[in-house]
Write a structure and sequence with these properties.
With about 190 residues, this protein is an alpha+beta fold. The protein has helices at about 5, 15-20, 45-65, 90-95, 120-130, and strands at about 25-30, 35-40, 65-70, 75, 80, 85-90, 100, 105-115, 135-140, 145-155, 155-165, 170, 175-180. The N and C termini lie far apart (about 35 Å).
Length: about 190
């Protein structure tokens, strides 16, 4: 952690976090005035993220959807700042964004669960994304076999549909997409 972070006292603000130097070894998020740090993702996580981003980009292009797919972008939520592995953001908002995007401009957030983030991705982040009103929360779990939980916001909480490896699913929202979670891991 940087000296600036070690010397800080009291609750953190969004401005405090955005003023920190970039840290290539950690993702630093803000929840309720506290920093939440996670290590940089490993190779299986990065492989799945790239492949899923490529699939989403192709689907967005095919549908001519007015969105942009971004990796590890800072999303401002009511209780702080989160960094989803992948976010699908309104194209106009993404075009004018600087360091952050606002949650109301985000259509989908995707977290790829790692051993160090599994509890955060299952418990904390869905609640924060739901409170921010983000319509879709998807969680990809790689172990023991790839599976994707497709969450759709209903009455303030996400209702999940599970897609297992070997199953091809068809999504219509926020744009048409067909895929199998097995395609996201090493062949």
């Amino acid at each position: 952690m940087s000296v600036a972070a070690a010397d800080h006292s009291g609750p953190w603000t969004l401005s405090d976090v955005l003023a920190l130097p970039e840290d290539p070894h950690h993702r630093i998020e803000l929840v309720g005035g506290a920093l939440v740090m996670s290590p940089s993702p490993g190779v299986p996580h990065q492989r799945a993220s790239k492949r899923l981003t490529d699939l989403l980009d192709a689907a967005v292009e095919a549908a001519a959807a007015p969105v942009e797919v971004l990796e590890a972008v800072n999303v401002v939520v009511p209780d702080g700042l989160l960094i989803p592995d992948i976010a699908v953001v309104d194209a106009e908002a993404a075009a004018s964004a600087g360091l952050t995007v606002d949650a109301h401009d985000v259509l989908v957030v995707i977290e790829i669960a790692s051993p160090s983030t599994r509890v955060t991705d299952r418990k904390m982040k869905p609640a924060l994304y739901a409170a921010a009103g983000i319509p879709h929360y998807w969680r990809l779990e790689l172990e023991p076999a790839p599976r994707l939980y497709l969450g759709h916001l209903e009455r303030g909480t996400y209702t999940d549909r599970l897609v297992q490896a070997g199953e091809t699913t068809r999504l219509e929202r926020p744009f048409p997409l067909d895929f199998d979670p097995a395609r996201l891991v090493r062949r």
